Amino acid sequence: METPYKMVTVHWKDACSGLGWTTLEAAIENMTLADIESVGWLIYEGPDRIMLSTSVDPQGKVADVLSIPNTWIINIKEVNYVEGLDGRRSKEGC
User: Fold this and answer.
1) Among residues 62, 64, 63, 16, which one has the least CA distance to residue 36?
2) Is 92 part of a structural domain of the chain?
3) Would you tell me which of 10, 50, 64, 94 could form a disulfide with 54, CB atoms 3.0–4.6 Å apart?
4) pTM over 0.85
């Protein structure tokens, strides 16, 4: 299926939160930013964020959308992929 979107991998830093009481020193030491790698269709690039979708359909609907603030992004790389040797799905009826 053709799509107008690029498949990308995004390396970014995510926020961290904790539960319960702790000391300030322990919070500083243990609550570091999460190092994240996400892959999906790049469906939106705006002045404040990008949006990825894990799925798109022929009618233009998207599913499982992730919005990432631009200031959290380390880099974005386009993914080169092969749909299949003959362009068909590997299992009938899937």
Assistant:
1) 16
2) no
3) 64
4) no
